[in-house]
Amino acid sequence: MTDASDITLYSARLVVPMTAPAMRDGAVAVRHGRILHVGERAWVRDMLADRGQRFDEIRVEGALLPGLVNAHSHLQYSGMAEVGQGRYAGFDDWADAFDAVYERPHDWHADAVAGARQMIRAGITSVADIVTDAAALPVLGETGLGGITYWEVMSWTNEAWAARGRELIIAELDRIPPVPGAGLSPHAPYSLDTEPLLEIPDIVRARGLRTHLHLGESAFEGERPGTDPGDPWRFAKLESFQSLRAAGFGASATEFVDQLGVLGPDCHVAHGVYMTAADRALLRARGTSVALCPRSNDVIGLDAPPVAAYLREGSAVAVGTDSLSSSPSLDLMADVAALVRIARAQGYADRDLHERVLSAATLGGAHAMGLDVGPDRTGYLAVGARADLACFRLDDVDLDREAGVADGLAALAEDGAGRAIRTVIAGETSFAKENA
């Protein structure tokens, strides 16, 4: 007979596994940080009883989802919220405001911890966290969050890289705690010369780790109209993407990094705003996911990402909040709602929209970081997966009516921000709202 404390049964009016149909009155049984059973509540309870397994039940009068996965953030900038509360006329305008605040004294560790706690209270259980200052490196592990800590690499010329860059970056990679995960973030095609962009993926791949970069975030990275798509830029000896532009070539930043071998299934990119259909096809061909950060783009003054096109074309999509220096909050569900609005405005009318964006915020983020496979797999509710769960209020939805499940998914996707009431990471409750 199993002790009652060994198994916890989380039951809810609506359970959304992501890799199986959403169900009314479902349940997830958890033991030792892993999912033991998923299914209708009555079936799971009977299964446990038939095997003589006692359990404690936690009832959620709402929806139970996999823990949300924030596929792009900078937790250390959580103390720079004054920047993210503004509105800007474009990337350069925002960067000026960012730099002015960044140069002030900051406790990067404390700020990152505060941001991590905000994410946990919003149902986020794993994060792709880009770190620029070493004090913030241990924060994911310290706060219990899953995901990957990426050390950001930027502003290296070819000459400086050859002289000392490679050895320095390897040493910095070694400083990242291996738990929950480590990687490198070559900042963007315009902030690094060709040699570091060539070598950083090799450094990471040799260790079986991952890369993550900003791509297609600024209009400067987009394909220049009116240029010959067959121009022979690949055969020019170019020191950087900047020199490609200076030489008059119109290739996009996505095409540029693809030629350098940066893209691949062990890499995901953030933003993906200024990308043509050919650029998006390159991402799909290389197995590279894109983390969409619509509220950050809006604050900075960028165009909206081509959400409808990504969905129609079957691109691997994830969702990120970016940081409080460019977004009003770290609630990933607010970005999910923004994606719904943008997709509709761009003409996406398929009935699967709510399910698609919710999947992007869970399974899509896990896939982007390679966390959907292996012993610590997450992003969906299935036997053997890590017990990362997020619970949300659905008190204004009648789930018993014929369209109840669809209504519940719509409420989560369109108005899920601020609804989180419980977050469970690896089987341990990290947040529970009182009286919920």
Characterize the structure shown.
This protein is α/β, with parallel strands linked by helices. It contains 15 helices and 15 strands. The strands form 2 sheets. It has an 8-stranded parallel β-sheet. It has a 7-stranded mixed β-sheet with strand order 3-2-1-4-13-14-15. Strand 14 and strand 15 (428-432) form a beta hairpin. It is globular. 52% of the residues are buried. The mean pLDDT is 95.
Structural class: alpha/beta
Main sheet attributes: strand count, strand direction, barrel closure = 8 strands, parallel
Morphology call = globular
Instruction: Count all strands and give the number.
Output: 15
The percent of residues in helical segments reads 25-40%
Unreliable segments (pLDDT under 50, ≥5 consecutive)? Answer: none
Strand order within the widest beta sheet: 5-6-7-8-9-10-11-12
Radius of gyration from the CA trace?
22 Å
Mean pLDDT: 95
Please, how many helices? 15
Strand coverage percent: 15-25%
Order of helices and strands: EEEHEEHHHEHEHEHEHHEHEHHEHHEHEE
The end-to-end span amounts to 31 Å
